[in-house]
């Protein structure tokens, strides 16, 4: 067994990010790590942040749920993202602690009254979303001081919109129906300093038309309620690039959103916001896994459904893969499925994942585009995995990108191992 700490023991006591920087997966595979290693590309997250900050025609809030890593939060902050969409008191505390100067927006429409009170009185949160009169009452009472209602609330009413253009639906659980909107908007107007409307078109929206259609809903609601609206928040849903799910350029989404916003009767005085999660962090991380066994075209690897591959297992998403060997294989590509390390049949990723036909036990595979909803979903089920695992910063380009060529500028502390 190699002597590097990567190879020591099967269950490290603590998670860590290695202090060295490597040029890519091959450097790490040479150390023969026993456990999956997360390869982090801060330069890719920074490029995404700069892209949204410079090109989205309004303000971009990072949706923390997509990847709550404090390292990533700092990269986005340094890239110019000043506002954060938080959905739980845990996320409120995390972002307040990591980025004390950030502006937090509590955008979960169903919150515990205690969470609202702590967010408002303890962390300075002033922006909340809601989709019912009951939630409005909760916010008003939790934010009052000595029985006096707060006068500095920004309240965003979530509108239910279709998810038909998106790969992951968010159309059922949250959002007020058109029939409820007038009463809700009028009541929220009374309780707010700034009033807004927000929606979510579903995650990984494959066409900009999703936003145009949702904006029509927003326009109808504003006209019917005849209230002044200060903020329109088009939510998340901005896509990333995965095998078989290559979206149009993000500029096309921004153009459609800008055009739809300009047509709203309130555009001259209102702010436009968005809440990207996936698009800001999908390219941030990939995972280096080891093959433990091959059975025909099934590879048993050391990460899976209960680790970073939740989406690959549960919704059948394909992620880009590459075999990481010192010498390239010249064997023809072959389609594989993966089994993860736990004892469950469910720990199965159907793929198909295209790899050279001679891949086998002891080989390392890099699985790309796992920065969004990959690391964030990891569990310790069955004694595998750890909260964050082992991470190493690498400087090469992500396996796919919507932001052009995003390899890191050369650095003097890159080690070739
Ligand atoms: C309220 C809200 N905003 C933003 C996001 C981020 O969405 P995405 O990662 O698709 O951009 C989510 C995801 O669930 C959400 O619920």
TrEMBL record:
Domain Orn/DAP/Arg decarboxylase 2 N-terminal: 52-282
SUPFAM superfamilies the UniProt entry points to: Alanine racemase C-terminal domain-like, PLP-binding barrel
Enzyme class: lyase
Pathway terms, separated by semicolons: Amine and polyamine biosynthesis; putrescine biosynthesis via L-ornithine pathway; putrescine from L-ornithine: step 1/1
InterPro entries linked to this entry: Ala_racemase/Decarboxylase_C (IPR009006), De-COase2_C (IPR022643), De-COase2_CS (IPR022657), De-COase2_N (IPR022644), De-COase2_pyr-phos_BS (IPR022653), Orn/DAP/Arg_de-COase (IPR000183), Orn_de-COase (IPR002433), PLP-binding_barrel (IPR029066)
Catalysed reaction equations from the record: L-ornithine + H(+) = putrescine + CO2
The organism's place on the tree of life at top rank: Bacteria
Protein name in the entry: ornithine decarboxylase
GO molecular function per UniProt: ornithine decarboxylase activity
């Amino acid at each position: 067994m190699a002597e590097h700490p990567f190879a020591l023991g099967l269950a490290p006591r603590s998670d860590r990010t290695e202090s060295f920087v490597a040029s890519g997966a091959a450097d790490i595979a040479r150390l023969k790590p026993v456990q999956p290693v997360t390869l982090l590309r801060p330069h890719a997250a920074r490029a995404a942040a700069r892209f949204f900050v410079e090109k989205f025609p309004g303000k971009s809030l990072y949706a923390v749920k997509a990847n709550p890593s404090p390292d990533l939060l700092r990269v986005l902050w340094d890239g110019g993202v000043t506002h954060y969409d938080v959905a739980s008191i845990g996320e409120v505390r995390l972002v307040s602690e990591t980025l004390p100067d950030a502006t937090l927006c509590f955008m979960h429409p169903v919150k515990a009254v205690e969470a609202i009170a702590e967010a408002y009185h303890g962390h300075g949160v002033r922006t909340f979303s809601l989709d019912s009169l009951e939630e409005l009452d909760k916010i008003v009472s939790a934010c009052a001081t000595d029985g006096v209602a707060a006068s500095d609330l920004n309240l965003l009413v979530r509108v239910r919109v279709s998810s038909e253009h998106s790969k992951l639906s968010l159309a059922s659980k949250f959002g007020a129906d058109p029939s409820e909107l007038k009463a809700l908007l009028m009541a929220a107007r009374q309780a707010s300093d700034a009033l807004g409307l927000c929606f979510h078109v579903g995650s990984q929206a494959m066409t900009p038309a999703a936003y145009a259609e949702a904006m029509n809903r927003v326009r109808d609601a504003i006209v019917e309620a005849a209230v002044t609206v200060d903020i329109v928040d088009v939510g998340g849903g901005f896509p990333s690039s995965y095998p078989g799910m290559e979206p149009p350029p993000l500029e096309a989404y921004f153009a459609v959103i800008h055009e739809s916003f300009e047509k709203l009767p309130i555009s001259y005085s209102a702010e436009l916001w968005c809440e990207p999660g996936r698009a800001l962090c999908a390219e941030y991380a990939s995972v280096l896994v080891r093959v433990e066994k091959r059975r025909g075209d099934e590879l048993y690897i050391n990460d899976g459904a209960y680790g970073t591959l939740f989406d690959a297992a549960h919704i059948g998403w394909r992620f880009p893969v590459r075999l990481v060997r010192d010498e390239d294989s010249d064997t023809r590509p072959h389609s594989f499925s993966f089994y993860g390390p736990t004892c469950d049949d469910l720990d199965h990723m159907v793929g198909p994942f295209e790899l050279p036909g001679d891949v086998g036990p002891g080989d390392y595979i890099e699985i790309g585009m796992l920065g969004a909803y990959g690391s964030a979903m990891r569990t310790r089920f069955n004694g595998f995995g750890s909260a964050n695992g082992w991470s190493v910063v690498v400087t090469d380009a992500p396996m796919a990108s919507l932001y052009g060529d995003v390899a890191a500028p050369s650095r003097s502390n890159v080690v070739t191992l």
